[in-house]
């Protein structure tokens, strides 16, 4: 296939991609309005999220929270006005980036006195104000409640008339011990049950957080230079095809289309393109959407301040990439990840250690399995180093100490033999690879798949298939050709994309 034909095909793919993404905007707008309202919470003192008939399903479908509380009220009701401070005391614990226990419960409210919500309130048989419901967020989507229902995943909260009573009711449901006086980020309530493989399903939100944070760090520290530009493009190509989050794939593709305009390859100094904050022309790109970063972690959340978080999210991202690639992409993925860490990870000791492990690889990877196992082994070598350092300095997380992965609780078949005295492990690598592909592949994205089943439109899955088809420029053509395509073809794509945009009707921006 000639280079010109390849560019034409890529042009058509990106143009089709942008058209397909338009249909997703409607459902996202309502979510983003809610998020914008949350960002202004400090001014109004409200933590609970206001929902209405237009955004109810979308917000509850998209939340990472395990449970939701929905308060149905009327703004003219004196009892509702008096109850609001109690409800807000509890909502403070769970809602927003400054929440004490984020990502666990979404606290919401619906004003039944608003005409737009009449049918919504009828669906839940609201008979008095305020009326509170509890359940998994997905069960509220396109759902309802009837007083005589024998079995329902949605429950009426019958004893929540004060903040203390409401929190006590929640604690009984969850077996937790949250308190109204809990302070942020000393997370003694966190579960550290590593034997539960389902926990990693929540990590898709942390991967989005880590991806967005990584780009912010790169921009803040002005790390895009002539000698690092190609390695960033190569890593972004990998994310476009294999990032486990659909919206991160979408955002990365949009960034790559404009990359040559933002950071031209022929300009040897980018300082004139950057603002005082270092973000410059890229500051308007939210690589995983406007609601990311959220400011908190879920799967990667530590029980102490300054533990886990970003480094954990980045590792999970790399493992998830390693189990999603095809054999022909293994060497390109290896060089993309090694170069990315070497050029853009600012922890010097960690960066140097990872670079040494990359440099010790003497032959190219021909199989995705081999690269995935190498990355797993490299991660365990990092953990071995940190286990010793944290033990001597007392800097580890007491609930999440560094360990050799996976533990026997998660994969007993991975162990052929384990010498407890020397801590030497004889691994069954076939079983290890099977575990990695399940844990960081199928289990990791299961939460998104469940949400897709709740009624996201067909264009979303079509968009995912379209993005996956961009394998054409990210696979076994070799690193040199991949970089050439990134620097040249994406420039052509940007021109074509802009010309098509001019001939189309203006798109409304997200509010």
UniProtKB/TrEMBL annotation:
Principal subcellular localization: secreted
Regions crossing the membrane: 473-497
Keywords recorded for this protein, A-Z: Disulfide bond, FAD, Flavoprotein, Glycoprotein, Membrane, Oxidoreductase, Redox-active center, Secreted, Signal, Transmembrane, Transmembrane helix
InterPro entries: ERV/ALR_sulphydryl_oxid_sf (IPR036774), ERV/ALR_sulphydryl_oxidase (IPR017905), Sulfhydryl_oxidase (IPR039798), Thioredoxin-like_sf (IPR036249), Thioredoxin_CS (IPR017937), Thioredoxin_domain (IPR013766)
Protein name per the record: Sulfhydryl oxidase
Cofactor list: FAD
Span of domain Thioredoxin: 42-175
Pfam families associated with the record: Evr1_Alr (PF04777), Thioredoxin (PF00085)
Leading EC class: oxidoreductase
Source taxon at top rank: Eukaryota
PANTHER family recorded: QUIESCIN Q6-RELATED SULFHYDRYL OXIDASE, SULFHYDRYL OXIDASE
Keyword match Transmembrane helix: yes
Catalytically driven reaction(s): 2 R'C(R)SH + O2 = R'C(R)S-S(R)CR' + H2O2
Domain ERV/ALR sulfhydryl oxidase: 303-405
GO cellular component: extracellular space; Golgi membrane
EC number: 1.8.3.2
Subcellular location: Secreted
Segment forming the signal sequence: 1-21
Keyword Glycoprotein on entry: yes
Biological processes, Gene Ontology terms: protein folding
Gene Ontology MF annotations: flavin-dependent sulfhydryl oxidase activity; protein disulfide isomerase activity
Organism lineage: Eukaryota, Viridiplantae, Streptophyta, Embryophyta, Tracheophyta
């Amino acid at each position: 296939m000639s280079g010109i034909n390849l560019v034409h095909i890529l042009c058509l793919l990106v143009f089709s991609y942008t058209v397909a993404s338009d249909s997703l905007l409607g459902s996202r707008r309502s979510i983003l309005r809610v998020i914008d309202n949350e960002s202004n919470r400090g001014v109004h003192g409200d933590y609970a999220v206001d929902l209405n008939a237009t955004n109810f399903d979308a917000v509850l479908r998209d939340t990472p929270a395990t449970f939701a509380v929905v308060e149905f009220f009327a703004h003219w009701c004196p009892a509702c006005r008096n109850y609001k401070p109690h409800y807000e005391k509890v909502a403070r614990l769970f809602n927003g980036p400054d929440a004490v226990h984020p990502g666990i419960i979404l606290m919401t409210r619906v004003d039944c006195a608003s005409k737009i919500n009449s049918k919504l309130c009828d669906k839940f048989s609201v008979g008095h104000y305020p009326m509170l419901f509890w359940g998994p967020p997905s069960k509220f989507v396109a759902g309802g409640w009837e007083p005589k229902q024998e079995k329902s995943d949605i429950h009426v909260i019958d004893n929540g008339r004060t903040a203390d009573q409401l929190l006590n009711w929640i604690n009984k449901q969850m077996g937790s011990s949250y308190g109204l006086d809990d302070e942020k980020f000393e997370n003694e309530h966190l579960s550290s049950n590593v034997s539960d493989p389902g926990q990693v399903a929540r990590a898709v939100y942390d991967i989005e957080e880590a991806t967005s944070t990584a780009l912010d760090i790169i921009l803040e520290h002005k790390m895009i230079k002539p000698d690092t530009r190609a390695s960033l493009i190569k890593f972004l190509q990998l994310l476009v095809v294999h990032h486990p989050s659909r919206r991160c794939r979408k955002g990365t593709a949009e960034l790559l289309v404009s990359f040559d305009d933002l950071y031209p390859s022929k300009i040897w100094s980018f300082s004139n393109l950057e603002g005082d904050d270092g973000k410059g022309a890229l500051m308007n790109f939210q690589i995983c959407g406007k609601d990311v970063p959220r400011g908190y972690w879920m799967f990667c959340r530590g029980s102490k301040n300054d533990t886990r978080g970003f480094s954990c999210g980045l590792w999970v991202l790399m493992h998830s990439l390693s189990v999603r690639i095809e054999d022909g992409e293994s060497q390109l993925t290896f060089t993309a990840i090694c170069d990315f860490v070497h050029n853009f990870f600012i922890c010097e000791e960690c960066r140097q250690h990872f670079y040494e492990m990359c440099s010790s690889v003497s032959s190219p990877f021909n199989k995705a399995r081999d690269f995935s196992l190498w990355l797993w082994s490299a991660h365990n070598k990092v953990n071995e180093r940190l286990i010793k350092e944290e033990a001597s300095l007392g800097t580890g997380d007491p609930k999440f100490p560094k360990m050799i992965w996976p533990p026997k609780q998660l994969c007993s078949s991975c162990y052929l033999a384990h010498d407890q005295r020397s801590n030497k492990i004889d691994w069954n690598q076939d079983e290890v690879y099977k575990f990695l592909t399940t844990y960081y592949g199928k289990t990791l994205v299961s939460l998104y798949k469940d949400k897709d089943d709740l009624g996201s439109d067909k264009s979303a899955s079509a968009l995912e298939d379209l993005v996956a088809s961009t394998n054409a420029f990210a696979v076994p053509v070799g690193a040199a050709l991949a970089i050439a395509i990134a620097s040249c073809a994406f420039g052509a794509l940007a021109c074509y994309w802009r010309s098509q945009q001019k001939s189309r009707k203006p798109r409304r921006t997200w509010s």
